[in-house]
Every structure is written in C-alpha cells, then in structure tokens.
Amino acid sequence: MSHVDPESLPKPLVARTAPVTVLFVEANIEVARLVEKTLLGAGDGAFRVEWVTSLARALECLAAGDIEVVLAGVNLPDCAGSEAFEKLRLAAPDALVLPLGETGGHGADPAESAIDMNWLPGALDYVIRRKTTEAAWRAADEALFEEKERARVTLGSIGDAVLVTDVQGKVTYLNRVAEELTGWSRSRALGQPLPAVFNITDKATGERAGNPALHAMAENTTVGLAANCVLHRFDGTEAGIEDSAAPVHDRYGEVTGAVIVFRDVNQSLTMTRKMAWLAGHDSLTGLASRALFEERFRQVISLANRHERRAAMLFVDLDNFKQINDALGHGIGDHVLQAVARNLLRGVRETDTVCRHGGDEFVILLADIADPAAAGHAVDKLLALFAAPLPVDGHQVKVAMSIGISMYPDDGDDMYALIEYADAAMYQAKAKGENTSGLFTSSGNGKAAHIS
Questions:
Q1: Strands of 310-318's sheet in order across
Q2: What CATH number should be reported for the domain holding residue 240?
Q3: In sequence order, which residues have a C-beta less than 8 Å from that of residue 262 and are 6 or more positions away?
Q4: Of residues 226 and 37, which shows the higher confidence score?
Q5: What's this model's pTM, rounded to 2 decimal places?
Q6: CA atoms within 13 Å, Cβ hemisphere of 393
Q7: Residue 10 sits in which domain range?
Q8: Quick one: angle between helices 321-328 and 330-346, nearest 10?
Q9: 296: which of 193, 260, 353, 408 fits an S-S bond (Cβ 3.0–4.6 Å)?
Q10: Catalytic site residue 160?
C-alpha cells in the first residue's frame, strides 16, 4: 500500500473544537484502510473514522447517533448500489451521506487509489463547512425572525402610537394605535411620505409643523415634537398630540430611518385625571381614600384649633352585611356597599369626609362640632336614613349598622388613635343591638357610653 504524505493533503477550511465523526461503509479491506489512513492523516485530529463492512452494521451505528458524515462504498455484501445509499440517507437525515462511486472498488490498485483519495479530506471539510455555515445562517435567520416577532407583538400591544420611516422619510411601519390615531390603515400608509400620514400643524398659527423624522435623522438624535401640535387625521378630524422622534441605525451606525412615538394629549390628560382621582378615592364606592382622609383630618384639626372647636370621628360597621352577601351574592353585596356609601354622603355636610375603612366598615370625620351631643345628633340623622330598606338591583335590602364616636381633642389628637377609640365605642354599641351608637369616654376607662 502506498504511503500518503499528510502534508500533501488539503488543510481543513474551518477550525473545529472536535473531530468530524465519519462512518465508512466498505467491504473491501484494502480500500477501507486506504480511506481511513487518508482521513486520519489529515492532521490535527480532524476526523474520527469508524469502519463497517455491511449495511446492517452501518444502520446499527447510525441508530446510536453521533455520526456527522457517512462515506458509502457501492459494493456491500448485504445491499449494493443506489439502494444501499438510499437506506443510509433515510437512516441518517441529519448526516452528510456521500457515495464514493467506483473509486477504490474491487480489483483496483490501492497505489492508484491513493492518488484518488487525496481529494477526500479537503472535499469533506468544504462540504461540512458549507453545511455548518448554512445551519448557522438558518439559526441566525430564526433568531432574527423571533426578535422581529417579539418587536411586532410589543409594538402592537403598547398604548402609544408608533410610526417608522425609511431614510427617505417614507412610512414603513405603523402599529395598531397609530392606525387608530391617524385614521390610516397600514396597507394604505406603507410607502407614503410621512407628511401625508403624519400631517401635523402648529395649533397657534395653523402652519405645517416640521417633519420630526427628517429632523431626527438630520441631527442623528432624539427630538421632541413642537409644542401644541395638531394631528390631522385621514377623515379630516383633529387631535392634539405629543412626544418624540428618534433615528434608527444599522449595524454600522448609519442612519436608516426614524421612529416616531406619539399619543393623544386629550387621552393623556384624561388618564392623568383618572389616576389622580383613583389615588384619592376608593375604587368601589368613590369615597375618600385613606390618603385623602388623612389630608382632610389635618385640615379639620387645623381649623378646629384656630376656632377652638371640636371634631368627631365616627366608626360605622354594618351589622348584617355577611348575611346580605350570603343571601344575594358578592356582586349585589358590592352594590349594597355603593348604596350605603351614597346614603352616608347624603347624611353628612360638605365639610365632612366619609372614607371606606375596609370591607363593610366606614369612618366619618365630622368637622366643626360644638360638643359630643352635636355628634350624637349627626349619628341619629345617619341611622334615620337607614331606617327604610335600600333599593339595590331589584331587591329591598335592610341595612343595620352600629356607630362608635370619639372626639377631638377630648380623646386625643392622633387620627389613628381616634379611629381606634371610635371602633371600641362601636363594639360597645353593637353589644346593645342593631342600629345603635356609642361614645368613647376616656374618663370611663375606655368604656363606651350608649347615647342612642
């Protein structure tokens, strides 16, 4: 058998951290040894060769996995020619399956075959590199698709309008909110000049405002839209808008377009007002939130000190709310709480503050009270309002309650302490039956005195 000089063989075209696993299927021992020596002589451990002499044994090896390349001879004892090649290809769909044809077949001179085999390592290396590169491109393409899909879903779900242009200032993308705000459908807007879709004017002068995309690209920086901009929709209606534009860059840092993010000013103001209102009010009943109640308490105490007057803290608990919930359901129970809140507001002055303390409990701050008797009269008025059933969702709901009272400054000047004292008085009143009230007296060792 002729000697093959490894230095004369083509070098691998790509560096690998592990050798290529090659399954060589060939019945001719001389040819098999020649091919094996040729591949192993390629240097740097580029190939790891496993040799089998039959199709059956080859299929067993492929079933075990980890084979990257199959070199198939044409003369096998149990299957020959194209039929063997097809079976190998089906058994190894992820491997590179190459037929060796008649090279080195039965009766060939191994010395002559050595010359023929010189092409094999380089050819395998080239094909493997090509396959690896294609796989890398497919993976990169899949990753790019996933990234684009994430961006598409994100831009489609945010609350702001998003509009993108190319470097010529033509529209290449707009999300659902931008479609709604401009009145332009995506299919109609794509390819249009930005001013046609994003038609904005100065509210004060009525003159066309500058093109924010061109400005952002020219300055290569984020720019804010001019103040008091008006967007003219596709149907001719108008909307005040606000926000900014920024340039888009390619991987080399070159500007390739711009993105504009904008929103309806009126919607922003409405949302701001709504958030401010929710911060100061209970979402179910609309009564004052704890934060607003604390602010009102500070104001009431300041006025009481200035005019040498008193204030009263009422703690209201519904005696039969659990039975109402159990009988009518939580949905109607919520509506009962809303009806109770409206009735409590009817029973107090504008200067007083009603707060839902939690569940079916409420606290009421009565401002500018002369004495405990005046607080008792206010409580009597509230109880009288609940003497008749409340109409709720077609039901006549009888609401019973107990009310405790504490006084400022008689019982202290801390809001939470006054609520606690009123709560204690409420429990004393509840023990005497429904629709009663009690006054906390610090001189009575924290006992509540029944006054109604």
A1: 353-358, 361-369, 310-318, 401-408, 436-440, 448-450
A2: 3.30.450.20
A3: 160, 161, 163, 178, 181, 225, 231, 241, 242, 243, 244
A4: 37
A5: 0.45
A6: 12
A7: 6-133
A8: 140
A9: 353
A10: no
| Distance of alpha carbon 147 from alpha carbon 144, whole angstroms | 5
* Tokens found for residue 416: 């939470």
Query: Which residue matches tokens 């809140």?
Result: 341
* d(C-alpha 375, C-alpha 418), whole Å: 14
Which residue matches tokens 């809303």? 338
Counting Cα atoms < 13 Å in the Cβ hemisphere of 361 gives: 14
For 286-322, write each residue's pLDDT tens digit: 898 888 899 999 999 999 998 889 999 999 999 889 9
Question: Considering the domain boundaries, does residue 23 fall inside one?
Answer: yes
Residue pLDDT, tens place only, 351-381: 999 999 988 999 999 999 989 999 999 999 9
The reply to whether 11 and 80 lie within a common domain is yes
Judging by beta carbons within 10 Å of its beta carbon (0-12, 13-18, 19+), is residue 233 exposed, middle or buried? Answer: middle
Residue with tokens 């060769």, as numbered in its chain: 49
Distance CA 394, CA 168 (A): 64
What is the secondary structure of 52-97 as a DSSP string? ESSHHHHHHHHHH----EEEE-S--SS--HHHHHHHHHHH-TTSEE
Considering 360, 371, 414, 423, which one is annotated as catalytic? 360
Q: Calculate ∠ Cα 170-175-176, nearest 5°.
A: 135
